[in-house]
């Protein structure tokens, strides 16, 4: 799922820079699987769908584009998109509330976007289930076997769910997502991040027993202390069987700044796993090649596809933040 940029979003001054990044992401996804694209500008959406489908058909790709006209405040589908859970009765498509990371920006259109997708029949026989809890997809990371990883700075922020403490949050994660265990990181920081330390910018499962994470090797860098503390927490985490996790540090990219001199949240942890491949954000810095090498070692049976996401971080997010996935069988293609 991609929520396409339009001039009514904060991308208005960067459309010529950012739309090619979206197109590259879309084309790489279509090499492996179907893609839902929504956009507020209907004329652009129709043309986009026709062009991408014609390209996919000409190259005999497996993926096809499903287009849905829908208003949107922004483009971060990972956080306003639905979260799909596998249950004993099939799949549940859950629509958590979205309030733009604790009422930092406008959010009403984004919060209603999943209802537009459901109304267009995108989810077929699967009913969209409303959940009365603020939760962004980028704030949780699952091993697929009952363990969730998250950050206390995000999920315990009062501007999201003021009536829920840590125990209440864990109960909701158990009831709604089937979590059997929750691993909490109490440290971790990325300058320029608007999300209150989303886990998908800091640490990710590469396998149920393996976590990769960002690590800052420079003691003079503002991130050093927080990320060192996060690394120690990761070393203390245990799998359900009591064994420690295998840990792999990701490269630390050179700093990237905006026109005002503010540091931007470039991170290699914001990769997207798709069928047969991993889309890896790169930023045009010397560490990109090492990041590609490390990801190839973490996912040896998948193609590693670098996508230059330098334009994306100017709006304080990256590749995984833009996308939301669905299991096979959920979408009505």
Describe what you observe in this structure:
Keywords: Hydrolase. InterPro entries: Peptidyl-Arg-deiminase_porph. GO terms for molecular function: agmatine deiminase activity; protein-arginine deiminase activity. This is Agmatine deiminase. This protein has one domain (2-322): L-arginine/glycine Amidinotransferase, Chain A, CATH 3.75.10. It is built from ten helices and 15 strands. It has helices at residues 15-30, 42-58, 77-80, 100-103, 108-119, 152-155, 166-177, 224-236, 288-298, 319-322, and strands spanning 2-3, 35-39, 65-69, 83-87, 90-97, 128-134, 141-142, 147-151, 181-185, 203-207, 210-214, 246-250, 272-274, 277-282, 303-308. A hairpin with a 2-residue loop joins β4 (83-87) and β5. 42% of the residues are buried.
Write out key terms for the chains shown.
15 strands; three-stranded parallel beta sheet; hydrolase; 22% strand; alpha/beta; protein-arginine deiminase activity; 29% helix
The oligomeric status of these chains comes to: single chain
Strand order of the largest sheet: 1-2-3
Which structural class do you get from the secondary structure elements? alpha/beta
Between the first and last Cα atoms, what is the distance in angstroms? 13 Å
**CATH topology descriptor:** L-arginine/glycine Amidinotransferase, Chain A
Give the averaged pLDDT, no decimals: 97
CATH class: Alpha Beta
DSSP helix count? 10
GO molecular function, one term: protein-arginine deiminase activity
Organism: Marinobacter persicus
Keywords: Hydrolase
Pfam families: PAD_porph (PF04371)
């Amino acid at each position: 799922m991609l929520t396409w940029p339009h001039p009514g979003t904060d991308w208005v001054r960067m459309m010529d820079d950012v739309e090619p990044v979206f197109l590259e992401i879309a084309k790489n996804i279509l090499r492996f699987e179907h893609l839902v694209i929504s956009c507020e500008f209907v004329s652009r959406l129709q043309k986009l769908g026709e062009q991408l489908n014609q390209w996919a058909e000409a190259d005999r790709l497996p993926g096809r584009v499903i287009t849905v006209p829908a208003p949107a405040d922004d483009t971060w589908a990972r956080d306003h998109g639905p979260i799909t859970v596998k249950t004993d009765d099939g799949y549940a498509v859950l629509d958590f509330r979205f309030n733009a990371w604790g009422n930092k920006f406008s959010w009403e259109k984004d919060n209603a976007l999943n209802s537009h997708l459901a109304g267009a029949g995108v989810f077929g026989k699967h009913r969209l289930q409303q959940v009365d809890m603020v939760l962004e997809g980028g704030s949780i990371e699952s091993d697929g076997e009952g363990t969730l990883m998250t950050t206390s700075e995000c999920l315990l922020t009062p501007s999201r769910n003021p009536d829920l403490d840590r125990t209440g949050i864990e109960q909701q994660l158990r009831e709604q997502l089937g979590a059997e265990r929750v691993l909490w990181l109490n440290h971790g920081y990325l300058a320029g991040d608007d999300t209150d330390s989303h886990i998908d910018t800091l640490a990710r499962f590469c396998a149920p027993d393996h976590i990769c994470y960002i690590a800052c090797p420079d003691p003079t860098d503002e991130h050093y202390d927080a990320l060192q503390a996060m690394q120690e927490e990761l070393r203390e985490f245990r799998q359900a069987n009591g064994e420690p996790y295998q840990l792999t540090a990701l490269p630390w990219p050179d700093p990237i700044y905006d026109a005002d001199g503010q540091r931007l949240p470039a991170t290699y942890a914001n990769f997207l796993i798709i069928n047969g491949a991993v889309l890896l954000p790169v930023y045009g810095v010397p560490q990109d090649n090492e990041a590609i090498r490390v990801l190839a070692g973490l996912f040896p049976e998948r193609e590693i596809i670098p996508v230059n996401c330098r334009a994306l971080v100017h709006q304080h997010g990256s590749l995984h933040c833009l996308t939301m996935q669905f299991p096979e069988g959920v979408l009505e293609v």
